[in-house]
Protein: Glutaminase
Amino acid sequence: MTEQLLLEQVVEQVRPLLGKGKVADYIPALANVSSNKIAIAITTMDGITIGAGDYLEPFSIQSISKVFSLTAALGLYEEDEIWQRVGKEPSGHSFNSLVQVELERGKPRNPFINAGALIIADLLQSRLGAPKQRMLEIVRQLSCNPKIGYDKVVADSEYQFSARNAAIAYLMKSFGNFDGDVDTVLKSYFHYCALKMNCADLSKAMFYLANRGKTLTGEQLVTPIQTRQLNALLATSGLYDGAGEFAYRVGMPGKSGVGGGIIAVIPGDMSICAWSPALDANGNSLAGTAMLELLSQKLGRSIF
Ligand code: GLN
Structure:
């Protein structure tokens, strides 16, 4: 069976799940997205991208952006400078929880929950003159798509409803683990979340994670060891408190976002993006997880 046919089968077999789950509704801009969308795309080691379903339709990448921001920070800081501010452990709490931040004196568990990503956004703000512009350049380059942009409506809406993320940032500041102006860093963080990309863009962008740190255009973005480390963090923390379930069912490093996207990686093999907006109780795409599970079964591949 061709890979194209396989992806189409995955979409069709998972389509009946589309009534299940719940679209993120913490901001109106996301609540209005149709729950009927379903898509998957893969980029294989020969650099070819194929997809099925709505794989060319852009969506809000949300927390998938946390992979790009950590990668950008790795290019700007010594590793110790990053890991003294944020941990490497799975959280077992919801992605926007304040509880651990308080109990663990302002040091977030990992860079893929909101608290950790806010620390990374703070680090980027300190070293980059124009972090939002730089982030756009990075994702455009990684996806080979100069048209990628921010969804201003989503970014503004996130800012309007920013109480919880602001609380997390101020709590970390109270422990001395936040350098910049909270409002400025929040605005950058919300823009990263509001990047609009489709499954093809995202599977291309994540190619470096499958290719020992080398991008689709041949640039060595991170070292092979850093790539392995990023994949380890994704496997343990990329799906929040659903990371164990995801490892069990899908068996790949992955990162989800509340826009319904999930990226996943089979190192040395392919980078993948699945999208369907309705989420499970942990805030991970319900049909997206099912598609990745089915794909790993059909391919007979996982990292385990
Ligand atoms: N913008 C969302 C937030 O900060 C991102 C969370 C997510 O995708 N899990 O709450």
Remarks:
- Residues 3-299 form a domain with the Beta-lactamase fold (CATH 3.40.710.10).
- The pocket of glutamine is lined by residues 62-63, 95-96, 114, 158, 165, 193, 257-258, 283 (CB under 6 Å).
- Residues 114-127 form the longest helix (14 residues).
- The chain has one domain: 3-299.
